[in-house]
Amino acid sequence: MTSFVGILVETIVLGSIYGLVAIGMTLIYGTLRILDMSQGSMVMIGGFVGWGVLVVAGWSPVLAILIAFVITFAMGTFTELISVQPLMGRRGFDFEMVTFITTFAVAIVFANVALQVFGPFQHNVTPVVRGGVDVYNRVNLSYQNMTMALVSVGLMGGLGLFLARTRWGLAIRAVAQNLDAARLMGVPVMKLYPLTMGLASALAGIGGVFLGAKFFAYPSAGDLPLLEALIVVIFGGLGSLSGTLYAAYAIGLIQATAEVVVGTTWSLPILYAIILLVLVVRPHGLRGTPSEARL
Amino acid sequence: MSLAEAQDARIGRPPKLSGGQIGGILALVVAIASVPVIWSNEYALGVLITGMITLVLNTSWNFVLGTAGVWNFGQLAIYALGGYGAGLLMIHTPVPPVLAIIAGGLLSAAMSVLLAFPTLRLYGIYTSLLTFSFAQVFQFIVVNDPKGLTGGSFGFPTVRGLYSFLSPRASLDAYYWTMMAVVIAATLAVTWIRSSRLGIALRTVRDAPGYAAARGVSPLKYRIIAFAISGFIAGVAGALYLSYNQSITTSVMGLTPMSIDVTMLVIGGLGTIWGPMLGTGVLTGLQVGLADYPGIQLTILGTILLVIVVFMPNGIVGLISAIRRRVGAWVTEGEGEDGGGDEDRAEAEETPAGVEETLGAELPS
After folding, report:
1. Which candidate from B121, B140, B144 shows the least CB-CB separation from A279?
2. The domain containing residue A126 runs over which residues?
3. Domain-embedded: residue A204
4. Engineered SS bond to B86: which of A182, B104, B115, B362, CB 3.0-4.6 Å?
5. ipTM beyond 0.85?
6. How many distinct helices (H) and strands (E) make up chain A?
7. Domain-located, residue A168
8. Is B264:B276 a contact under the CB 8 Å cutoff?
9. What is the C-alpha to C-alpha distance for residues B243 and B95, in angstroms, rounded to an integer?
């Protein structure tokens, strides 16, 4: 029972953070039809912003989240403008493949600039909130983890409201549904794309502040979250927001269980094996829509 | 261009080389082969050998990524597997190194086929995600090394290698010529396969999957064969890397080498014959040039990758054939002949997206 509650607590915490990082990725795929490999570097940048604001400047955690939001939003917009916008509307190459490579190139540059500026060392980030509460029989839920889960869920809810209720949210959904029709209705697609990518990057950036506080801030801090976000979005089905959410918690559950039952070393391979099985049965993930006919 | 030539180009036979072109290529081969005799700079030879090992890997990757059009980003894991497999054989069994290297290639081919089954059920971006995470997980397992087989991140125990009986200098020369032979063999094999029935089937499945399926070409069957061939070449490259360095570490995998190799392929031109050579040559030269600035090396490489892909998404070879196409069209226009259409189509076959360019108007995307 004790380990069961432990697994449950870890599931909620891990799932919420995965959800935050992965939901941006699926949002970008849904609207722009590109797989943004720079999403991991946004997590890394968020981690360093958290370190800078909390440790170096000693300001409040709320400020850290706000600054991370602004900086990673700007970085995401910038990434879109240099790596995706110039390729828009040109023909004669595979757009998905080429943008996969260009955003990957941006990620390489970000990671190596960070390596030059901050060095390869792990920087300790002070916990956002201290203390914790005993949930059940010495299973401790730190306020830090609780805050992370709550803020992540809040942000995802906020994103949902933004998409459902605002004009820009409507425009994003329209583009995801049918690009040509949205254009004909006068949706400013060329402004919408940087906005979408900025928004998604900002979510990953906030996730980065949390992950930095949970682990460390270092130049390759984005690699593992990127891999996990990739697994989450494949599992959930690219472009499906609800699928991504289910997948984030499902994968949090699998990983937390594997960590408790067989240890950390094998949790990633086991996770991978399970995803493999799911994909062999459902090639478009849990909620993805088959975009091409099976031949 | 005569009708027969145009037809040859359309079904993808290799262009018939003139006597002069064959002579030129032979002269180039002799010139490259004589480098160790004329220029006995050991550092330069080492760079060239490593460059050629990378070229073999890139040739195999280009085959599956460009010619077969499967977005396989797990090739580095396959490459490393060949190295580790051959290394374990060399340490624990008395088999001669040559057989161990071939066995490494076969092991990689087997793994590649195993990877192909789940991968080929997926499309496009899902394929790249799955293979990419396969590579990451493979690296993760090797680094954490549950059974003590791989030495983890500290590296593999030293092996004898192919030429341990020669003096260091003689073995360097031997490796140089061996790698040259392997590069030529791999390039010829891939070029030949590209224009064989198998290659035509692969390119049809890549460019017009619906048409291929309607004509009874099985995507799964041909792509699994492509994975096997590509895996074998990559595994041999990995085993040769191990043999030359007498060890292998997990640093051959991961994001950094992957970004460098992908940059090489994309800069050269994916799916072309000369692309991997040009790309590997250009980037190896750049890496040597930037060797004194290790900190900013990857930043510069990343920037170059971004700029080149944005300005010429089909790489150097794609750009050259686009220029040739335009010049050709301009020349025929000047002569007032109506032969532009055939030429366009023939040249377009060179680039991966070429068919889309000519058929794009008719196919719903």
Report:
1. B121
2. 2-219
3. yes
4. B104
5. no
6. 11, 2
7. yes
8. yes
9. 14
Q: How far is CA A234 from CA A94, A152, A289, B123, B258, in A?
A: 20, 20, 12, 12, 21
Count of CB contacts below 8 A, A vs B? 131
Give the integer Cα–Cα distance in Å for B351 and B365: 18
* Averaged pLDDT score across all residues of chain B: 80
Inspect the interface and report whether the beta carbons of B129 and A265 lie closer than 8 Å. Answer: no
| Mean pLDDT value across residues B302-330 | 84
| Residue A78 falls inside a structural domain | yes
Burial A122-151 (b: 16+ CB within 10 A, else e): ebebebbeeeeeeeeeebebbebbbbbbeb
Q: Write down the pLDDT at residue B142.
A: 84
Is A84 in CB contact (< 8 Å) with chain B? no
Q: In the structure, what pLDDT confidence band is assigned to residue B109 with cuts at 50, 70 and 90?
A: very high
Decide if A96 and B305 are in contact by the 8 Å CB cutoff: no
Is the predicted pLDDT of residue B106 greater than 90, yes or no? yes
Give the pair of three-digit tokens for residue B42: 């050991």
Instruction: Report the C-alpha gap between B81 and B235 in whole angstroms.
Output: 7
Encoded amino acid at A288, one letter: G
Distances (CA, A) of A217 to A58, A60, A123, A222: 16, 18, 5, 9
> CA-to-CA distance for A77 and B157, rounded, in angstroms?
47
Q: Which chain A positions have a beta carbon within 8 Å of B296's beta carbon? A: 112, 116
Phi-psi region of B152 (alpha: psi -120 to 50; beta: other; left: phi over 0): left
Q: What is the CA radius of gyration of chain A?
A: 19
Tokens read off for A149: 């889960």
Q: Which of A104-118, A158-172, A231-245, B5-19 has the lowest mean pLDDT?
A: B5-19
Neighbours of A227 (CB within 10 A): 21
Average pLDDT of B209-215? Answer: 85
Q: Does residue B352 surpass a pLDDT of 50?
A: no
Prediction pTM value: 0.79
Q: How many domains does chain A have?
A: 1
The nearest CA of chain A is from the CA of B287 a distance in Å of 15
Tens-place pLDDT, residues A25-84? 888 888 888 888 888 899 999 989 988 888 888 788 888 889 999 999 999 999 999 988
Indicate whether A189 pLDDT > 70.
yes
| Per-residue exposure over A28-43, b if at least 16 CB sit within 10 Å of its own CB, e if not | bbbbbbbbbbbbbbbb
| Tokens standing for residue B271 | 């799916």
Comparing alpha-carbon positions, the chain B residue that sits nearest to A238 is B126
Q: What is the pLDDT of residue B14?
A: 59
Q: Is the pLDDT of residue B76 over 90?
A: yes
Q: Are the beta carbons of A178 and A167 closer than 8 angstroms?
A: no
* pLDDT for A291: 54
Question: What is each CA distance from A142 to A10, A65, A293, B225, in whole angstroms?
Answer: 11, 19, 48, 53
Q: For residue A259, is it within any domain?
A: no
The mean pLDDT value for B6-13 works out to 50
Question: What is the share, in percent, of chain A residues with pLDDT greater than 90?
Answer: 11
pLDDT at B364: 40
Distance CA B362, CA A30 (A): 26
Q: Which residues pair with A140 in a beta bridge?
A: A134
A88 interfacial to chain B (CB closer than 8 Å): no
Structure tokens at B284: 């190896």
